[in-house]
Amino acid sequence: MYRKFFSGWMVLVLLLGMLMPLASQPVIAQTPDPTSVTIVGSLQSELGCPGDWQPECATTHLAYDADDDVWQNSWEVPAGSYEYKAALNDSWAENYGANAQPGGANIPLTLDAVTTVKFFYDHKSHWVTDNENSIVATVPGNFQSELGCSGDWDPGCLRSWLQDPDGDGIYSFETDVLPVGNYEGKVAIDESWDENYGAGGTPGGANIPFEVTQAGVAVTFTYNPVSHILSIQVGSGPAQDNSVWWDGLEHNSRSDFYRQPFGALPAETPITLRFRTYAGDVTGVKVRFYDTAQSQQTVLPLTKVATIPGETFDYDI
Ligand SMILES: [Ca+2]
Ligand SMILES: [Ca+2]
Ligand SMILES: [Ca+2]
Ligand SMILES: [Ca+2]
């Protein structure tokens, strides 16, 4: 006589674990808005200052652009090797160097020929850079007015400027102020439409859509200037944060991947059940068996058996 080991029906229940802290973000010290920002360095005498390394020389002041909320200016710089950083309020008291670090290292700038160089300083991130050392990439889109730009689809609005303060060659921008809605964006280089990339990194390619389903959620734009691919992630991604990514859950009772042995079995035959989640999304999975013959339930924890490298799933037995 054959009967299923588990008669009746079965319900899989996810039990969420405790809240875990999210991956830490770099802490950026907030300081009062500067009254001036000076590019200080060995290039100041070439640009018309009385000498070099002079925070008080107004000739190399950046100008604050209220539409961009970024300080910026361009100068024609003679060929040569220079170093510079940004000094605030005409003083050394608050200055930023490489990697947006307070009092950080000088930033090298080497020019083979006389070049018009544009310099940038963002007081929100303290990143100081120029368009020779860095790719200047923005995300024009229909969400820019929501960020405070004067309009949408403006490649020149630096409120959606992709920055690389850690210098790893990956440029990113994050915001949590977008209202619930459907949006689109792409990547533009040098504050112009002349060079832009859409879906899949295609030059002039399709707009990349994203949806904000909840106010206050973080939207992260990440740009790889080698592949030209812009990734837009809404939310922090799967994590042990008391929220489950339902798209990642799977148990298919008709697949022998999820049930082994498959089909009807003699009583007392051990079987293996599997359940899938996004990697790192949950602290545990339990299965609840309900035996209709006995009118009782059993709850058993599943064991995490695999995280597939390069994939985003755990497989639990
Ligand atoms: Ca000089
Ligand atoms: Ca808009
Ligand atoms: Ca601008
Ligand atoms: Ca980076």
How would you summarize what this structure contains?
This protein is mostly beta strands. The chain has one helix at 144-147; strands at residues 10-13, 37-41, 63-65, 70-77, 80-88, 95-96, 107-111, 115-122, 127-130, 137-138, 161-162, 171-175, 181-185, 187-189, 196-197, 208-212, 219-224, 229-234, 259-260, 272-273, 275-278, 286-291, 296-301, 304-307, 313-316. Strands 2, 5, 6 and 7 form a 4-stranded antiparallel beta sheet that branches. A 4-stranded antiparallel beta sheet has the order 3-4-8-9, with no helix packed on it. A 4-stranded antiparallel beta sheet has the order 11-10-14-15, with no helix packed on it.
Observed structural traits:
four-stranded antiparallel β-sheet, Immunoglobulin-like, 3 domains, binds calcium ion, disordered N terminus, 1 helix, 317 residues
Overview of the molecule:
With 317 residues, this protein is mostly beta strands. The chain folds into 3 domains: 10-19 and 241-316, Immunoglobulin-like; 33-134, Immunoglobulins (Immunoglobulin-like, Sandwich); 135-237, Immunoglobulin-like, CATH 2.60.40.10. The chain is built from 1 helix and 25 strands. Strands 2, 5, 6 and 7 form a 4-stranded antiparallel β-sheet that branches. The protein has a 4-stranded antiparallel β-sheet with strand order 3-4-8-9, with no helix packed on it. Strand 17 and strand 18 form a beta hairpin. Residues 1-25 have low confidence and may be disordered. Bound molecules: calcium ion (4 copies). One calcium ion (CA) binds next to loops.
